Fold this protein.
Amino acid sequence: MSNSQIVESRSVHHVAYTTRDAEATYEFYNKKLGMRLLHAENHRQGDGYFRHFFFGMGAGEAIAFFELQGVGEDPEFKTEISTGLGLPPWANHIAFRLDTLEELETITKQMHERGIEHIMRIDHGWCTSIYTLDPNGIMVEFCVTTDAEEFTQTEEEALALLRLPASEIAEETRKEDTIGELV
């Protein structure tokens, strides 16, 4: 295949998760985070139905949810994509980009004013982020790149780190010393 035939993604169209409670999910993303409900649809399938609805993340991108009833799901399914699988809550999450630390402060204040109490802030060196859980147990992050140069690596540098044997991971990379603060 020649380079002229390669098609690359231009951005994220949407990412989709499940919810047991469409109304609580709407309340969180629309009323607490201020994301506009862009689109909703309801579909019958067999003896059940599902709802599929989308919130705007900006730049034409969306986060979507499915509320399922009797369409083949396990009745005990978990919406907590990390802890439901026995993983730490941060292992699977969605991160929304902000451009400035001032925007991060503003969204933190807005989240508190709208009833989100548990917000953790972490300075990762190359970015600063705040984290909370949505009503489905999904970790939500707002992230500002504060040092693009520190984040930037060549593919060779990144691949070398990706393939570094576990025994060679430096002690100073330990994360317990960098746990964030509640804000």
